[in-house]
Amino acid sequence: MATAGKVIKCRAAVAWEPSKPLVMEEIEVAPPQAHEIRIKIVATGVCHTDLYHLFEGKHKDGFPCVLGHEGAGIVESVGSEVTKFNPGDKVIPLFISQCGQCRFCKSPKTNLCEKGWASDRYDVMSESDTRFTCKGKKVLQFMGTSTFSEYTVVNEIAVAKIHPSAPLDKVCLLGCGVATGYGAALNTAKVEPGSTCAVFGLGAVGLAAVMGCKNAGAKRIIAIDINPTKYEKAKVFGATEFVNPKDHNKPISQVLYEMTNGGVDFSLECVGSVAVMRSALESCVKGWGVSVLVGWTDMDDFAARPIQLIAGRTWKGSLFGGFKSKDGVPKLVNEYLEKKLKLDEFVTHNMTLAQVNDAIQLMKTGDCIRSVLSVALQ
Ligand code: NAD
Ligand code: ZN
Prior knowledge:
Helices cover 25% and strands 26% of the residues. It has 11 helices and 18 strands.
């Protein structure tokens, strides 16, 4: 590789400050250091968590940064000590690492890892150490990944090598949204055959949760969104009923209680609102109902009546669908290649990185499921 060992100048969409459009800039990407991999990003999805950081979380120490954490690409070069990756490998950068050594990685109970940006920077949502500069300034790597850039550098503990025939403009969705929702149903809620489920929020994360409920054998899957244009898609992934909370003048939990004779067995919150999280919990049946938080928010506390839990409901959270990232993602890619998992159906728009602000706008207005941006040419 002619570029190996050298600084690469390339195009990236830089978020200079919160709430402002991203700006296409030329950035410098340093060569990978020991245990690091420099990746040419071929395609990236836009996820609501990118919008969360830009418009909602707005943490002052999290800017300037390059957003994007749902990408796929090709290894350009590797740093010293990297033995399991080679230039040309197809890869997915991971916002949750898997070092394999820490007490979390060694436990089958969790997919958290003590290494990587996430260990205690959920508020800032960025890696403090970055390989990017622009106009003489350090630019942070959002969620340790930064896929809105033609090149990025990621530690090998946060890179999954995937099947060489995987189409990168589809499997990029396994870098976040689809893995997250699908795993939340299968791994975290542990949806059971014959059960009744409710999924709140029908973006890519919620639709993937619907797909997970269906693949787990749920009998009824009630899809809930305030945007009724999402129901057709939800049907494609297996939803059996649809409810718009705005169509009712009573709480959605009451509506679901009546529809299900006492509440659902499993509910998944895929919106990122503490009010919806409470509704999702209260929609569960007493005795054994399980409610899973998937939507991302860290700004407000939530409240619930203790009796909800005392009466036997369980409230859980799910990060990246509970998948151990390096192990899980290549398997999900293979499931897609074997047609056991849908991905194409999530993609409503194909655009280029230069159109990233249009893609962000489409998500803000609820007019897309996933926009996939082509980044660097393969
Ligand atoms: P999205 O914006 O595409 O979808 C959100 C959906 O929620 C929209 O269809 C919207 O109409 C609907 N909605 C809004 N308010 C609602 C309400 N009151 N009741 C019902 N539906 C409502 O977002 P996405 O990319 O699918 O992401 C969904 C959430 O998951 C976000 O909060 C995102 O940050 C989070 N997320 C979490 C993880 C994780 O690891 N836990 C990973 C990825 C994304
Ligand atoms: Zn995401």
